[in-house]
Amino acid sequence: MATLTYTLPTRAYNEDGVSDGTILWDSVANILDAGGGYAAAAFFCSGAETQIVRRVSPVKAGVIIEATNKAADETIGALAYQVYGGTSDLWSQTWTPAEINDRDFGFAIAYGKNVAGVKTTQSTYLIASGFNFNLPTDAVINGIQVRLYHASEASGGGTTQARLYDVTVQITYTWAPTVHANGKAGGGVFVIGQLNPPDSKKELRHRVYDHTTGLLVSEWNDVATEISWTEQINNPLANAALTMARSDDTKLPIVDTLVDEDDVLALSIDLGLISSP
Fold it and tell me: Which residue intervals of the chain are DSSP H helices?
């Protein structure tokens, strides 16, 4: 399960509904960023009157779901966050990732006032939408939260006004990606014998033969440096009677004569020229 960070909307506008008031919101674009500006409807309170949250409803495909209202006439006080919904709250709806990703997904918010216990809705709906979510198409939506950042602030002449600074939404979802794989059957013929076949990219090969039978014992590729007798041959075959021959083409017959670096036959060797290290 994953929870996205709280995200700001990219769209904000006034919308009339059935359960809202009649006073329009001003400066609605201020809720699109956290720059410090606010949106407000031009109704005011004085004395013991208070501003309250009257409506917080989801907007699905551009339609306000007024039957679902999470607001409970909460009093708006000092600047603070007010959260509605939860990580397992679907707002009495079923949701697909496409509906959450849609630019017309959002929330409708309306404020009102409490005058001596009489609570009325004053503002029209302020719609916040276009959150630009990009959920996987096969994700499962688990919960939705909307957070209002607002305050009741002095507006002059001994009155106060409810001011909404931003609206952010958070989505909780589960995603179990499905892995699809394609396979292809194949076959081949494998011939046991020459375990190290000729390779056009090999520059030099060293072969080791059994001294008695003349059979190929093993072969080493060496494209950079000469092989190390003690490390590559002597260690694994320390007790074998071996004759080593080298050729630039492993397909040639076993070399039992001595050749120089230019593959020129050496007719005789003066063993006296060979000295022990």
Answer: 97-101
